[in-house]
């Protein structure tokens, strides 16, 4: 009977020793093995056996870590106060350095990223901060890379996430954008007027070379006016020539009336019409 208890105790002790001696390193991890406080190697993914009590295995994740950089109050080079937040991505490339060289690599990168963000953005004007974010991102990444190289960490990407402006600055920028749009609209309208004037000049030259073109245009205008239900019919004609012809007609009528007061019934009816010289005359009826 005592032999059975000895076997049971031996099995329990063996299980405890096995539990303390066996470690599993996941695929995305590396294990830094300390023996009596000294680094003796790096364990890759898989099953690892260590000496209980003597060895300590510190697992380090090699995955990319997403670290938000909280909003920072920054004064730009042109003395504008803005709140800027960002996000940084980093990963451990040297597991031994990330454990031995620094106590908490994540907290250290977070702090240095905040100070670097304030320093880099503070060297740019507001317009540069808003329009040249790619260059600012690269500058922050390069500074962080140099600082974290001895920690066994590589910063893969830094991106400005949000830029908050004061309300007064937002209103000023809105007025500036509106003025810029009005300027572009006036320039476009002026260019359109110039093109239209050029086209009208070309059309006038063509009509002078081909007089019938003006008559065809007049007929086209009549067609366009006839689309609506109008009670007025308009026959286009040059205004000044029509006034002159009307004056000539009245003068001839006065001369004829003075020369033959008794022959009013024998006049040619065609003499009652003004001379048009082949041009149309304006008549309007409603």
Please give the order of strands in the largest beta sheet.
3-2-5
* Low-pLDDT residue spans: 269-286
Shape: rod-shaped
Helicity, as a percent range:
40-55%
Radius of gyration: 48 Å
Number of strands: 10
Number of helices: 8
Mean pLDDT: 80
Major sheet summary line: 3 strands, antiparallel
The succession of helices and strands, N to C, reads HEEEEEEEHHHHEHHEHE
Ends distance: 134 Å
Structural class: alpha+beta
Beta-strand residue fraction: 15-25%
By oligomeric state, this entry counts as single chain
Task: Give structural notes.
- With 286 residues, this protein is of the alpha+beta class.
- The protein is built from eight helices and ten strands.
- The chain has helices at 2-21, 95-100, 105-122, 126-131, 133-148, 167-209, 211-225, 239-259, and strands at residues 22-25, 29-35, 38-43, 46-49, 55-61, 65-75, 81-92, 153-164, 233-234, 284-285.
- Strands 3-2-5 form a three-stranded antiparallel sheet.
- A hairpin with a 5-residue loop joins β6 and β7 (81-92).
- It starts with a helix and ends with a strand.
